[in-house]
User: What shape does this take?
Amino acid sequence: MYGKPSHIFPYFYPIQKNNMSDNKNQNPEQIARDKIDQMLIDAGWVVQSKKKVDLSFNNGVAVREYQTDVGPADYVLFVNRKPVGIIEAKREDEGFHLTSVEDQALGYAKAKLKYLNNDPLPFVFESTGTITRFRDYRDPKPRGRNVFSFFRPETLAEWLRKDSSLRTRLQDIPQLNIEGLRPAYINYIL
Assistant: This one.
């Protein structure tokens, strides 16, 4: 079943069956991956199996179990057919320890992807399907923070068009020229 026609409402995507309620025979990691899949679909990504990859299908494609030189990454995110990030998936009961897998996720982000000669991927997520953390490794001091959902492919594409991350650009703000300003203005700004 499909939503409204995309030529009339371009932000409607095909409605996909939500498998989360039918998880009787699934282990906790499979349940978490189903939730992550749904979160990605809700954010405008197309989720594909590593066996049937078509990066031209959508401007945002998340490929499950993509092979790297250090092992398979749970998800690799492609925007406009270029790899931009990874998602490290963990079962829900590991949510309290999600920060402990940051090094593992970074390892996948720095790894070489199969068939590609890529640079390290800047955007890294860790998720249980309930708790999701995000880091932008273009930051001067990258740090994880909780987010409510995955970012849309268009958002990541816009961030990549900029030369540096927001935190880097904030560090490069020029000195304030105080010539001609009243002391009260200077005190307020500084």
Summary: The domain at 19-189 is CATH 3.90.1570.30 (tt1808, chain A). Confidence is low (pLDDT under 50) at residues 1-21. The radius of gyration is 20 Å. Helices lie at 28-42, 102-110, 153-161, 166-171, 183-189.
